[in-house]
Write a structure and sequence with these properties.
- The chain is about 50% helix and about 10% strand.
- The chain has about 90 residues and is mainly alpha-helical.
- The chain has a 3-stranded antiparallel sheet with strand order 1-3-2.
- The longest helix is centred in the N-terminal third of the chain and has 17 residues.
- The chain is elongated, with a radius of gyration of 20 Å.
Length: about 90
Amino acid sequence: MPADAPDGVDIAMLVDAVIAAIAQRLDRPQPQTFAQPDAWQYLGLSRSAWFRAKSADLLPRPIHIEGTGDRWRRKDLDQWLERQKPRRK
C-alpha cells in the first residue's frame, strides 16, 4: 500500500468506484434546457460576463416555462458557441 494512503483504504476499489460513478454520469441524458446560472456555466462565462452579454442582447433568447421561469435551450447555446469561434481564412 502506498505510504500516503490511509490505513485500510483499498486504492484499487476507490479507483473502480470513481470509474463506475463517471460511467453512470455519462449514461444519464443531458439536460435540454438550462436555468440562468447553469447556462452561463455551460458557456464558460462568469456571472458578470453573462449579464454584460445579456444586457447587450448578445445571448440567445430564453424560453419561458410556466412555473419554472426562463430557460435557455442547449441547442441555442451550442449554436451561440459555434458563432463565437474565430473564422479562419
